[in-house]
Amino acid sequence: MPLPTRPFLVVYIVHHPDFAPGQTVAETLYDHFRRKLFENVAGGTGLSVIYRSVPPTGAAAPLPINFDESETAAVVVLFDEAFAADDAYVAWLEKTAVIADANGLSARVFPVAMDAAFTRSAMVEQAVRWDKWDGADQAVRTRRLISSLTYQFARMLRSYLERLRHPADEDAALERYLKKVQVFLSHSKRDGAGERIAKLVRQALFDGEGLSTFFDVHDIAPGLPFDKVILNQVRVSAVVAIHTDTFSSREWCRREIIEAK
């Protein structure tokens, strides 16, 4: 598989300059996705994160986005009353969405509804609904936004890698993109706490972004060999080890982690 010469993923963060919290949220997103954790994804520098807020001199809207500069691109739009009231910014968003859609699954626009203004947008069904999240603490909501975006970026990158391995038509690519990321919950049932925590994590994943989970009590179909199913699911999942007191003493917990590594 030839390595790409362009960045895997570039994240653009867009907000209206009159939206007071916009710069704070944008800077928090920048700091998170540029950190060391993402160096393996981006080739040693963290993800590329670019602001689109203040228009260039003589223009009424931000610079256009060139989707050819990266393998995949995510446009995060912090949409508020100021954005909605500015016809130039709304036109910029609509045009950007059309261009992104023409680029297929490698370019996505993620509108974030910061307040009720987004209910008037034609893209309301596509929005991350910041305005509906419980609590008024901006830091808590920003952490939830980071979690939501991280999941979506993971889907984009998974889709991109699958296209490199198995080029296919658009319907097959969309089907793979929509497939939920699966989390394998490796836990010990011997001490009671492992299974209890695993169930809580499982429920939290369902209630949050709706990730898929593999939980052997519920997800091994009757008649299938336990060992083959477990090892197969470890290979196709993100593995979370719930390390309670008896975890390391359980043979299958150890095998699951070795297989994951």
Task: Describe the protein in words.
This protein is an alpha/beta fold and 261 residues long. 43% of the residues lie in helices and 15% in strands. The longest helix has 28 residues, at 138-165.
Shape: elongated
**What is the number of beta strands?**
7
**How confident overall, as mean pLDDT?**
84
Largest sheet: 4 strands, parallel
Binned strand content: 5-15%
**Total DSSP helices:** 10
Distance between the termini: 22 Å
Helix content, binned percent: 40-55%
Name the poorly predicted regions.
none
The whole-angstrom Rg is 21 Å
Outline:
By secondary structure, the chain is of the alpha/beta class.
Question: Characteristics of this structure?
Answer:
261 residues, 10 helices, 7 strands
Fold topology:
Elements: E1 9-15, H1 22-33, H2 39-42, E2 48-52, E3 72-79, H3 81-85, H4 87-102, E4 107-113, H5 138-165, H6 170-178, E5 182-186, H7 193-207, E6 212-214, H8 216-219, H9 226-235, E7 238-241, H10 251-260
Parallel strand pairs: 1-2, 1-3, 3-4, 5-6, 5-7
